[in-house]
Amino acid sequence: MQWFRAASQRYLDDASAAGWLAAAAVVALLVAAPILSLIMIAAQGSGDLWPHLVAHVFPRTLRDTVLLLAGVGAMVMTIGTGLAWLLTAYDFPGRRIFDWALLLPLAIPTYIMAFAYLDILHPIGPVQSGLRALFGITNPRDLWFPEVRSLGGCILLFGFVLYPYVFLSTRAMFLMQAASLIEVSRTLGASRARVFFAVALPLARPAIAVGTSLALMEALNDIGASEFLGVQTLSVSIYVTWINRSNLPGAAQIAILLLAIVLGLIAIERWARRHQRFVSPAQRARRAAPQKLEGARAWVAIAICSVPLLFGFLLPALYLLVQAVKRARFAGISSEILREIVNTVVVAGVATVVALTLGLIVTYAGRLARGPIGQAIVPAASIGYAVPGTVLAIGLLTPLAAIDNAFAGLIETVFGVQVGLILTGTGMVLIYAYTARFLAISAGGIEAGFGKISPSLDQAARTLGHSPGATLIKVHLPLIRPALGAAALLVFVDCMKELPATLLLRPLNFETLATHLYGEAARGTYEDGSIAALCIVLFGMVPVIMLARLSRRPALGFDQISGRATSDAMADLLLGPDAAGQPEPEPEPVTTVEART
Questions:
Q1: Between 20 and 30 A from 163 (CA), which of 173, 216, 286, 465?
Q2: What is each CA distance from 14 to 9, 27, 455, 491, in whole angstroms?
Q3: What digits encode the pLDDT tens for the residues 181-210?
């Protein structure tokens, strides 16, 4: 009888795990559906548009895109890695403030950065007006000033906004490096600079690669900043081909090209590291003591840290605050802004709940179904984060239409009522797009929370007769509540800031803070969009401050806290299983014996 009970329980557990795995597979299919749909749309052909694109659009578009990626990649790697080493290896006045303040540029989306600097650096803006007053120049044309509407200006703005991706991941890697590595190098006569280039930098390369890849994908996903600054990237070409030329297949073909570039970046990095292995240090390894800087060297360190913070956050945030106050005093806060805040919060909130629910299903299925299938399910469901918003928007059209037609046909057959479109042209399409794009954040954060729970708790719950569902509710959910909260906050803010997908898929007469700001910037009425921009920045500061506090605890694992930037799931998806500094599997299996209580 006892054998029969054990066999029955094992059968029920296997059946329940299969059910969770099937649900996770459906989620992964929903995320992958836009990509499959994109290929089908592109196969329809674009008529005579493709020769025109090849002859007149692609040469400039590809050149601008490649140069933008090269410039932004070099800039974020230099700034992020340099600041991470400076704050890890040296101690100087203000170091603790810079530890969290240097993450604040993450709160400002790239299109808001461009929105602010276009007005700040305008010929009649505060900077050039002040310079003319200083030099006694009356005619704006008599003062030479670098043009912000250029590829160089776009690279600089993107670099100052996106460097925290590299800074956050690389600093955590530097903090986890054992002091013995540094001390042995110094004992052998190596200077601090040589230790950095010969020891610390090679060990931190996986973190640098992850941060840089995420920064480049953010740059590829951008529409607003590139268009404002006159840079014709592939994302802008997709938008123009779809909206202005009304040629969806042509836009889909450009989107496939953009997706190929994203996958190519990932493949190039993995190929470059094909013969390298990275092993994480011991979790309780003693950290190296930072060298104290005094006098002129301390002031140089302070100046180096202040420049990215000044241009990446303080100047644009101060501009937005001043302009928002002026606008509020002159015309007050309009009802349109309040309605857009409600639209933004409601859609982002619903998408966050859906993303958390689906992320929980995916990660728990991976925990139950251990093995190759369980390990592959989270990366498969996280592929949406690697797809730019413009690409995702085009790919969603066909599956949404299929779902709408199937549902409408079913309702009409059963009840004889015509319901029309349920998803297409409504707020539901935005929720679908946000969920597919940011499911990786939810799944990565929740998976990291599950990673801190010992499998023995699952076994104990099963022994007491609890099903996997009951174990999740009674055991896991209370323990992963902090990870759920962090993932929810990050997903919510990312949904609020998302511009490309919102701009292309929003219903008629439906505005969010991001689309309102885009419209005002396109019309040149910058002061009218300052309140919306300030609201987005204020919402974005909340998770940034949280990340800044938690990322100083490398024992917890920064990638276990920030599902957005450097979660294990995204690292595996982008750069392979060794990207987060995880130990490579041993060539021979090792048998381990677990102590049981």
A1: 286
A2: 9, 20, 16, 32
A3: 666 676 666 677 777 777 778 878 877 887
Distance in angstroms (rounded) separating the CA atoms of residues 297 and 390:
46
Query: Quick check: 216 and 69 in contact, CB under 8 A?
Result: yes
CATH code, domain carrying 183: 1.10.3720.10
Could you report the per-residue pLDDT of 116-140, keeping only the tens digit for each? 898 888 888 888 888 888 888 888 7
Name residue 91's beta-bridge partners: 292
Residue 55 token pair:
């002859």
Q: What is the pLDDT of residues 438-488, one digit of tens each?
A: 888 888 778 877 877 877 887 787 777 777 778 888 888 888 887 788 788
Residue corresponding to tokens 């511009």: 499
Give the model's pLDDT for residue 449: 78
Q: What angle do CA 308, 311, 312 make, to 5 degrees?
A: 70
Residue among 11, 35, 144, 101 at smallest CA distance from 437: 35
Cα–Cα distance between 83 and 170 in angstroms, integer? Answer: 9
CA atoms within 13 A on the CB side of 274: 5
Give pairs for 238-246: CB < 8 Å, separation 24+: 238/390, 238/391, 238/394, 239/390, 239/500, 239/503, 239/504, 241/49, 241/53, 242/394, 242/504, 243/504, 245/49
181-187-192-198 Cα dihedral, nearest 10 degrees: -50
Pair 105, 249: CB distance under 8 Å: no
Please tell me whether residue 93 adopts helix, strand or coil conformation.
coil
The position carrying tokens 């100083």 is: 552
Q: Which domain holds residue 116?
A: 2-283+332-575
> How many other CB atoms are found less than 10 A from the CB of residue 563?
30
pLDDT tens across 496-554, in order?
Answer: 888 888 888 888 888 898 888 888 877 767 667 888 888 888 888 877 777 666 655 54
Q: Say whether 292 sits in a helix, a strand or coil.
A: strand
- According to the model, what pLDDT value does residue 491 have? 87
User: For residue 292, what are the β-bridge partners?
Assistant: 91
Helix (H) or strand (E) holding 291: strand 291-292
Number of structural domains, the chain? 1
Residue 438 lies in a domain: yes
Q: Quote the tokens at residue 582.
A: 């995880």
Give dist(CA 213, CA 345) in Å, integer: 29
- Please enumerate in sequence order all residues whose Cβ is within 8 A of that of 525, keeping only pairs 6 or more positions apart, or say none: none
Going by C-alpha positions, the residue among 44, 387, 114, 66 that lies closest to residue 234 is 66
Q: Is-contact 347 139, C-beta < 8 A? A: no
Question: Do the beta carbons of residue 319 and residue 119 sit within 8 Å?
Answer: yes
| Domain presence at residue 597 | no
| Residue 523 in domain | yes
Mean residue pLDDT of the chain comes to: 78
Residue 287 · residue 175 · CB < 8 Å: yes
In degrees rounded to 5, what are phi and psi of residue 211?
-60, -40
**pTM score, whole prediction:** 0.78
